[in-house]
Write a structure and sequence with these properties.
Order of helices and strands of chain A: EEEEHHEHEHEEEEEEEEEEE
Radius of gyration of chain A: 17 Å
Radius of gyration of chain B: 28 Å
Structural class of chain A: alpha/beta
Helix content of chain A: 10-25%
Distance between the termini of chain A: 30 Å
Shape of chain B: globular
Helix content of chain B: 40-55%
Number of helices of chain A: 4
Largest interface: A-B, 59 and 60 residues
Strand content of chain B: 15-25%
Distance between the termini of chain B: 75 Å
Strand order of the largest sheet of chain B: 3-4-2-5-6-1-7
Shape of chain A: globular
Strand content of chain A: 25-35%
Number of strands of chain B: 28
Largest sheet of chain A: 9 strands, mixed
Number of strands of chain A: 17
Largest sheet of chain B: 7 strands, parallel
Oligomer: heterodimer
């Protein structure tokens, strides 16, 4: 695993290939758009998606917590995909994961999916805080909207970029997209798609390339 | 045979024909007698030669031999129409109305209380509601609408009296998943109505016997009836003046316009066929700009236009009101447009059968021959015209091999039958195996498909939340009304991108374009659609709202659609023409015209001889290029490019992007490729294909791409979902995502196998890929270093749709890449 480190408003943020970020100063792991139970929600509608994804996602989340030694986990929205996806199997797996990290405080900033999926089920021991909660110099959010209260860390977009290189190489990858006022994390959930974003001059972008996080130089690119 | 005409069973038909001054053709009589004797079969005849009545009069004669309808009773004006007896399946819903009219023509004179109606995606809601209560005596429908009828709870009752199914233009359905869907529906109908007779109608095919078997299933009997063969066809081309001055690789665009205008002017009525909807739009526009006086006299026709607009064009053609119609394959089939004198084909027809079919749309007046004139869109296409003429003269028409037991269609069918009254596993398996396509369906494939719809995965996993099809006491049914509704909306195997209706702010709908095109527009942008310049206003309720704009400039939407590949027949003919050119032999005007370009090719590199594989190596600003020219059509080249890239990348870590066209393929890499080492290690060897091909397909993500269609047919991904609202949006995921998830968590999923198999068999034509390698491995490889891309190489160089194959790590590759900041950069690059 090879992380990238970025300094934002005087704080060190490590960008992890697990598709999460670690705020060193406060020992906080940040992850957005987990979409737990998405496959189960599909199955409930007669779409045959295999299980296994949720277990993998939880293992990756545990791995990131243990690797960073985080004391706190902040979930930036869309923890559950849909009400129909909150099946017994999904909730059992989530509670078992939670029991593995009793010392970690878990905070949820609700996203648009959470509103439809309903309040977090009991047994997850997580604290819900409103969108836009300020933790100077940062503001915790789901939707990437600028805020006067600080630098916004958000999700929602499932950002990805298309890179181009010599010999007409083209590669589409999930990314961390840090602008002047808002930083967007990649979607954490494995069963989520990408939305291509178009960074502007001055923005910085890191892609998740397998086990590495690599900053990509902006440039005209050769199409 | 009785000498007394008028007394035999065919007498009513003879009389009706005689009343019109016609006489039945011998093949029509043969079909009628066979039908009356209880036989099924396949009629092979050209368009406009009486095939419709060959198939229709059998059921009519049968009815006429039965007791006459009861006389009208006092109070009722008309006796009720008799129940459903004949189903007429047509591949294009645009054909349904004309077919129904032709079927109705004899009814009144015969005094039969038969109703003939259509049922397609275009059928209005009122007619559908009536048909929900009562189906007509004869129903003209499409495979999709037929399958929808099979999802009705009372399906068995509906078809109880069915005597005959006619499948029109069977060659169009055969070979694709719509054909498979039709085979399954036919098996169902045979179960409902055991004495059912099936008659297919097909154009010329290389494999008529196989087409018959696919139509009739595994039962015995059936005959092929040869109808009238097509008239002689004249194939010629509009030759560009001064070929040297044309960019030999680029598109001629509308440079051929003056000659096309002249050709249209000469003919009374002509059809200008294009290969894409975008070309239809741009050529219609170009013709109007060249001849403003033709406004109202020329029109365009393609599948995305609104039904009303298409009807108007078709009527205009029949009545001879239109001078020229620019059209896509939507006008390939169907009833005659008698006034059409000349057919123009823009770009390569890609296949001999297709060119013949299009040519057949002209020359229906007595004493005329069918004539098709090809208009090259680049100079090398002249080669294809010369090759096509040669293949037609030699009578070499392509075969259409039927599909091989696709499990996605089976999965869809299981849900269809579960809805349509339910099924018992053993009975349905027997029925499915009675089709030609699933005759060798294995027990574990069947088990898997059944598990997939009942449990959502392999038998060992338990997903209590999943219940698409539910088994109770051995009977499988759909119980959840939401799943039933979703299935009915998704029935079918035609896969297209999300379509958005184009509609005037105050006014009617114009047709539909792909969502991806609309997504790139900003309010105020102009685009051309249906021959009109429109201003985009906004998207709302899944509709693109527009207003009329002045001026003639605007972007032309591009519709996705598979690019046709050169057929084997045509590919072989092209290699032969090239070999002649290499020897200095240029026969015919097209070869003469293309001569300067081929001579340039010979000077800069060489013209490949028969038995020789040409490889050109060039270096440009973009990197190191290998151009390989097997001349086997783009589908084979796609697989071959992936395979060659994969094999070279095993020599040492390297990354390639791949481009293909009908003549060859290109491997482009940032550094030089170890070609010689790879050749020595068996680059072209047919050995090890079993392992190398799947690995190469994975590397190039070809199976992942093929999965798009499978995911849709098997019901993983839903098509544009009107009125569905938020809950549906939570069920959206791309087929690529499904592919990744299945590969990771259910690698034994047979839909993945199917994706690989389809890439190999359908997309890459596995046997053709194997044969190609056999051929190439025996050939002499001529590696030529060229200083710049040659006439053969240049079209590959400018192809922008590329796959990647790499043996380097992702992070290593990413480190050499950049993130283009603005779209302007792309546009600039595209303009270069």
């Amino acid at each position: 695993m090879s992380d990238a480190v970025v300094e934002l408003r005087g704080e060190r943020l490590r960008l992890l290939p697990e598709r999460a970020a670690f705020w060193e100063g406060t020992g906080t792991l940040l992850a957005a758009d987990l979409h737990w139970g998405k496959a189960a929600a599909f199955r409930a509608s007669g779409v045959a998606v295999p299980g296994g994804g949720t277990a993998d996602d939880l293992a990756r989340l545990s791995g990131a917590l243990e690797r960073t030694g985080a004391r706190r986990l902040v979930l930036l929205g869309d923890l559950f995909h849909a009400r129909a996806g909150r099946t017994a199997a999904v909730l059992d797996a989530a509670r078992a994961w939670r029991a593995r990290h009793p010392a970690v405080e878990v905070v949820l900033v609700p996203g648009n999916h959470d509103r439809h999926a309903g309040p977090p089920p009991p047994g997850l021991e997580l604290r819900v805080v409103p969108e836009g909660t300020a933790e100077p110099p940062f503001v915790l959010a789901h939707h990437p909207e600028p805020s006067a209260a600080g630098y916004v860390l958000a999700g929602h977009l499932h950002p990805g970029v298309v890179l181009r290189g010599a010999a007409r190489m083209r590669q589409r990858l999930p990314c961390f997209w840090l602008g002047a006022e808002v930083g967007v994390l990649p979607a954490f959930g494995g069963f989520t798609g990408l939305a291509e974003v178009r960074p502007r001059g001055g923005d910085r972008v890191w892609v998740v390339a397998g086990e590495e996080v690599v900053e990509v130089p902006p440039g005209p690119g050769r199409a | 045979m009785s000498a007394r005409r008028g007394a035999g069973p065919l007498a009513p038909a003879e009389a009706w024909f005689a009343g019109r001054g016609w006489r039945p053709f011998p093949f029509q009589r043969e079909v009628w007698s066979a039908y009356l004797a209880g036989e099924s079969g396949l009629i092979h005849a050209a368009t406009g030669t009486g095939k419709t009545y060959a198939a229709w009069w059998g059921p009519l004669l049968e009815r006429l031999a039965e007791p006459p309808p009861e006389p009208r009773r006092g109070g009722r004006k008309q006796p009720a129409a008799e129940p459903l007896r004949v189903l007429w399946v047509t591949p294009l819903r645009a054909l349904a109305a004309d077919t129904a009219a032709a079927l109705r023509a004899p009814l009144e004179e015969l005094g039969l209380p038969w109703a003939v109606e259509t049922r397609t995606g275009d059928t209005p809601a009122g007619a559908r509601a009536r048909q929900r209560r009562l189906l007509p005596t004869a129903l003209v429908t499409t495979p999709e609408s037929l399958t929808l009828l099979l999802t009705r709870e009372d399906a068995r009752e509906l078809f109880r009296e069915l005597r005959c199914v006619v499948v029109d233009e069977w060659h169009e359905l055969l070979g694709g998943k719509r054909g498979v869907q039709t085979e399954l529906a036919l098996a169902r109908l045979r179960r409902f109505s055991p004495g059912l007779r099936t008659w297919g109608v097909s154009a010329t095919l290389g494999n008529l016997e196989e087409a018959l078997r696919a139509l009739l299933g595994t039962g015995d009997g059936g005959r092929v009836v040869r109808g009238l063969l097509p008239k002689p066809v004249v194939v010629d081309a509009l030759i560009p003046d001064e070929v040297e001055r044309f960019p030999w690789a680029g598109h001629l665009g509308t440079r051929m316009l003056p000659q096309v205008v002249e050709a249209v002017e000469e003919a009374g009525t002509s059809l200008l066929f294009t290969n894409t909807r975008s070309q239809t739009e741009s050529w219609y526009r170009a013709l109007l700009e060249a001849r403003p006086d033709w406004a109202g006299a020329i029109a365009l026709h393609h599948g995305s236009l609104d039904r009303g607009a298409r009807d108007w064009v078709e009527a205009g053609l029949r009545e001879g009101r239109l001078k020229c119609v620019v059209a896509t394959s939507t006008l390939d089939l169907g009833v005659d447009f008698a006034p059409v004198e000349r057919v123009l084909q823009l770009g390569s027809p890609k296949g001999v059968g297709r060119l013949l079919q299009r040519a057949g749309r002209s020359g229906h007046s007595p004493g005329r021959e069918s004539r098709v004139t090809c208009i090259p869109t680049n100079v090398l296409e002249l080669l294809e015209v010369a090759a096509a003429r040669e293949a037609i003269l030699a009578g070499r028409v392509e075969s259409r091999p039927p599909a091989e037991r696709p499990l996605d269609v089976l999965v869809q069918h299981l849900v269809t039958v579960a809805l349509g009254g339910g099924f018992r596993a053993g009975e349905l398996l027997e029925e499915v195996r009675s089709t030609h396509v699933y005759r060798e369906l294995e027990d574990d494939e069947w088990r898997w498909a059944l598990d997939f719809v009942t449990r959502g995965g392999p038998a060992l996993t338990a997903y209590p939340e999943y219940s698409r099809v539910v088994e109770r006491d051995g009977c499988y049914r759909v119980e959840d009304p939401r799943i039933a509704r979703m299935h009915r909306m998704a029935v079918g195997t035609i896969v297209s991108d999300g379509q958005v209706q184009v509609r005037y702010l105050r006014g009617p709908a114009l047709g539909s374009v792909e969502e991806t095109f609309i997504a790139r527009l900003r309010p105020g942008d102009r685009f051309v659609f249906g021959g009109k310049t429109l201003e985009f206003v906004r998207v709302r309720d899944m509709k693109a709202w527009v207003r009329r704009a002045s001026g003639t400039r605007g972007t032309i939407p591009r519709w996705m659609g598979s690019r046709l590949s050169l057929s084997t027949e045509l590919a072989r003919a092209i290699r032969a023409r090239l070999d002649e050119a290499r020897r200095g032999e240029y026969r015919g005007p097209e070869m003469e015209a293309v001569r300067p370009v081929l001579e340039l090719q010979a000077r800069w590199s060489r013209i490949p001889a028969e038995g020789e594989l040409l490889v050109e190596r060039t270096r440009t600003r973009e990197g190191h290029h290998l151009f390989v020219f097997p001349f086997e059509g783009r589908l084979v080249h796609e697989g071959l490019a992936a395979l060659l890239a994969y094999r070279i990348s095993r020599v040492r870590p390297i990354s390639f992007t791949l481009a293909v066209n009908d003549y060859g393929l290109e491997l482009l890499s940032p550094g030089p490729a170890p070609l010689e080492e790879a050749l020595a290690a068996g680059l072209l060897s047919p050995h090890g294909l079993a392992e190398d091909v799947p690995a190469a397909l994975n590397a190039a993500e070809l199976a992942r791409r093929q999965f798009r269609e499978i995911a849709r047919v098997a019901g993983l991904v839903f098509p544009g979902y009107p009125r569905a609202g938020k809950s549906a949006r939570q069920l959206q995921a791309s087929s690529g995502l499904f592919f990744d998830v299945l590969q990771r968590y259910d690698p034994g999923n047979r839909l993945l196998d199917q994706a690989h198999r389809e890439v190999l068999e359908r997309q890459l034509e596995r046997s053709r890929l194997g044969r190609t390698l056999e051929r190439l491995s025996a050939e002499r490889v001529a590696v030529v270093e060229t200083r710049r891309p040659t006439p053969l190489a240049f079209p590959l160089l400018v192809d922008r749709a590329r796959q990647t194959v790499s043996s380097e790590s992702l992070a290593d590759r990413v480190r050499r890449m950049q993130l283009p900041l603005e779209r302007a950069a792309d546009r600039e690059a595209a303009a270069r």
